Amino acid sequence: MVIRRTLQCDYNSDDFERFDDVSIVTGTDTSALQLSYRPPYDWPGMLAFLKTRELKGVEWITDSFYSRTVHLGEHKGWIKVTQAKHRNAVMLEFTHSLTPVLSVLLRRVRDLFDLNAQPDIITQLLSKDKVLAPLVYANPGMRVPGAFKGFEMGLRAILGQQVTVKAATTIAGRLIAVFGESFVTPYPELNRLTPTPALIAQATVDDLARHGILSARCKSIIALAQAEISGRLSLDSSTHRDPAAAIERLVELPGIGQWTAHYIAMRALRWPDAFPKGDIAVLNNLGGITAKQAEIMSQAWRPWRSYAVLHIWSIKKDAVKISVAALTNRERREVR
């Protein structure tokens, strides 16, 4: 049974806390659908990536499933995604409150888990490169984690600028606790909805900065929210057929550079050829090369550079790093 109710409470604009619309979804009124994918698929790797970036209250991720609260239009609920047994598919459990927006929900889940990827084609190209070949052979089922909501991803990307993943996740959790709508489900881990662009757009720099966010990033977050609600920018993969144009619009916003724009394009806009060439982990794992060298090297990985980035990120800290010095003389000249 699905129960919904609204509680009217006082709103304190100074503290920017809002609890006047609390939705409740309880019971076992859910359905499940099977969503197929082309094997192989690194399900543990996907969950591990998402777990380290888990949005407390909005997401609940374990080593066997992914779950989250959902707010699509006027419809609210929760989902749970597991890997199907003995099938090349994932199982999506969703509350019946989301049935009216099922087509949108399915697309977003497929985007989040990169279920439309063609690993055979991607592997065929990337394995031709001597730098990537051992990484690709070690994990041919690598996927590029997407985003369930584009604005949520954009917010997370800005918070991740020049800080660790753990630090960005902690700050994101603080914002969700204050700006996210309270939401009651059968699971105590799922208790908030993602902050809406409309609410963030009303915030001031001080409203955000008090939660440990640098002033420059506060301005970026507010500008992103305002661009989203004005229609000047939509971080929805279904609305962008020209990722380059979307990147141009992103970098026009204060504090958003090429790294942030390409990271958003990679995950929210589902652009398989996005390449944040200045990413410090990419440069370090490739042996301490420059962004210019990385850009030149990456030309051989097109149009699947997003997948190349995930493979490069997967290089362990204690592993032997790829180095330009290990390449042939001709290759060293080319990357210079």
Explain what the structure shows.
The protein has a domain at 150-179 and 195-267: Hypothetical protein, domain 2 (Endonuclease III, domain 1). Helix content is 40%, strand content 11%. It has helices at 43-52, 102-112, 119-126, 133-138, 150-159, 165-179, 197-201, 205-209, 215-230, 243-251, 258-267, 280-285, 291-298, 305-313, 329-335, and strands at residues 23-24, 30-36, 59-61, 65-72, 75-83, 89-95, 183-184. The strands form two sheets. A five-stranded antiparallel β-sheet has the order 2-6-5-4-3, covered by helices on one side. Strands 1-7 form a two-stranded parallel ribbon. Helix 5 (150-159) packs antiparallel against helix 9 (215-230), helix 5 (150-159) runs antiparallel to helix 11 (258-267) and helix 10 (243-251) crosses helix 11 (258-267). The chain is globular, with a radius of gyration of 21 Å. Residues 1-27 and 318-336 have low confidence and may be disordered.
Task: Describe this protein with a few key phrases.
about 325 residues; alpha+beta; Endonuclease III, domain 1; two-stranded parallel ribbon; about 10% strand; disordered N terminus
Backbone shape: globular
Main sheet? 5 strands, antiparallel
| Tally of strands | 7
- What is the N-to-C succession of helices and strands? EEHEEEEHHHHHEHHHHHHHHH
Distance between the termini: 63 Å
The CATH first-level class of the domain at 150-179 and 195-267 comes to Mainly Alpha
Give, in spatial order, the strands making up the sheet with the most strands.
Answer: 2-6-5-4-3
The CATH superfamily name of the domain at 150-179 and 195-267 is Hypothetical protein, domain 2
Helical content band: 40-55%
Low confidence ranges: 1-27, 318-336
- State Rg: 21 Å
The CATH architecture category of the domain at 150-179 and 195-267 equals: Orthogonal Bundle
State the secondary-structure class: alpha+beta
Number of helical elements: 15
Strand content: 5-15%
